[in-house]
Amino acid sequence: MASSSIRPCLVVATQDGNIYDRPELLMICRHGREFALPRPDELIPLPDESALFLLPGRRALGFDPASGRPEQQEEWAVAAFAAPAYTLTAHPAYVSDRNAPVLPLFAYGAVGFANNRFYICAKKVDEDQRQVFSGISPARIRKKAEALMRRFPKNRLIQHLAAICALIYNCPAARNLCLGRYEAPLPVSRTCNARCIGCISRQEEGSPLCSTPQKRMLFTPTAEEIVEVMDLHAANERKAPIYSFGQGCEGEPLTESALLIEAVRRFRGKGGRGTINLNSNASLPESVTALADAGLSSLRVSLNSARDLSYSRYFRPHGYGFSHVRQSIRHAKAGGIHISLNLLYFPGFSDTEAETAALLDLINKERVDCLQLRNLNIDPEYYLNLMHDIESGPSIGFLNFRKRLKKECPWLHVGYFNPPTENLKENKV
After folding, report:
1. How many Å is the Cα radius of gyration of the chain?
2. Using one digit for the tens of pLDDT, what is the confidence trace for 295-311?
3. In terms of Cα–Cα distance, which of 304, 351, 309, 310 is closest to 34?
4. Which one-letter DSSP state was computed for residue 352?
5. Is residue 398 part of a domain?
6. How does DSSP assign 41-101, residue by residue?
7. I want to staple 55 with a disulfide (CB 3.0 to 4.6 A). Which of 77, 133, 225, 370 is the partner?
């Protein structure tokens, strides 16, 4: 557990990748445009299955207790990529060189060193173990994936999920499909009606983001292929199977709404059980209504903001607007669908007064069931520059942000993962 006596020191990296601590300097973290020592209540030991990144072209900042001033170092700054179920509460502090490259699409948490271990600014928001793979060897996952490929040689979706997603991208959802547990991914779409700044599968020509963590799928599966994956997962995960359209290797699944409706109807028509979930930008309200009628269980709506301007600046929607997103939520609610907001959380922006008030208004008016606090994968300075002229006010901090949620929306479930709708747990805000 974090303690008020913990004062982590600065962590820096050399250009050849060596990471070491500077005991004479204290760790500084960043909340939006504010630089400060980390709040004692936001420090936790670096979770297992997290990773450390060095940040090229970014000079580490540490606080010198002797002078009472921040000190810029020659070495590069270091960041932590938190394991699933953890939400970052601060970014690392650094000064960028003029020619510093835009960082790849990951989330960058502030990290320091104390008591012979690394500490990170983050909080655990979900106790679900579905993306914990400690104790499961890569060899076992490979064996399971190869067995699926042999068993279903003609199913392109299974081949894609096993050979590419599980074995190349190490996608947690795809690995779980191979292991026959928790939530199965169902990517379907090659196209998208948004041009998200931080799209992790496709960037426009000329984008300063030099690469994406994964590539967009190159085919559209048939309803038969989709249902075969659902049948497979239902046979393996007997307790609480979840099937999720909308994955990192695809565009917007609602652009293939007719295909989704057909697959859901076929699966439900033969008694298919479990939670059928749609991870979506919720851009097409009429399609959401049709999916609810077909047997959809839950809708997870991704957004970086509940304010129109902030939302549009990041998502860059084509042919729809934030009003359509709210309308889709209302349509889904009317159809008995469980609603989650997938808030792409950015410390120092998402927890400002203006952003928090807009989010609470959306949750209250649309009676949202769940808020998933996922990290926005983006270069922190790139995002702040994108939002430079949008007034948001000072950061209230992650813990105060959660207290506001609990006080004003006591029914709201807060977590990280899509819950099984047949067995929802009590709120753990």
Report:
1. 22
2. 999 999 999 999 999 99
3. 351
4. B
5. yes
6. GGEEEPPTT-EEEEEEEEEEEEEETTTTEEEEEEEEEEEEEPPTTEEE--EEPEEE-TTPP
7. 77
Nearest in space to 35 (alpha carbons), one of 310, 384, 328, 343: 384
Tokens representing residue 126 in the block: 């979900």
pLDDT along the chain (429 residues), means of 10: 73 94 97 94 95 97 96 97 97 97 96 97 96 94 98 98 96 97 97 93 76 86 98 96 96 98 98 97 98 98 98 97 98 97 98 97 98 97 96 93 97 97 52
Q: Measuring CA to CA, how many Å separate 124 from each of 1, 2, 193, 225, 385? A: 12, 12, 33, 36, 28
Q: Which helix (H) or strand (E) holds 35?
A: strand 34-36
Q: Would the CA dihedral through 182, 190, 369, 337 be positive or negative? A: negative
> Do 403 and 297 sit in the same domain of this protein?
yes
Specify whether 32 is located in the same domain as 178: no
Burial annotation 91-129 (CB, 10 A radius, 16+ → b, else e): bbbbebeeebeebbbbbbbbbbbbeeebbbbbbebbebe
Question: What's the pLDDT at 2?
Answer: 43
- In angstroms, the CA 321 to CA 95 distance is 36
Q: Are residues 388 and 265 in the same domain?
A: yes
Q: Are residues 154 and 47 in the same domain?
A: no
Alpha-carbon span 275 to 418, nearest angstrom: 9
Q: Tell whether 218 is covered by a domain.
A: yes
Same-domain pairing of 341 and 249: yes
**Domain count for the chain:** 2
pLDDT at 354: 96
Of residues 415, 404, 310, 409, the one with CA closest to residue 353: 404
Calculate the average pLDDT of the chain: 94
Are 218 and 309 part of one and the same domain? yes
Domain encompassing residue 98:
9-124
- The Cα–Cα gap between 200 and 262 comes to 27
pLDDT in tens, 6-35: 899 999 999 999 999 999 999 999 999 999
Do 224 and 111 fall into the same domain? no
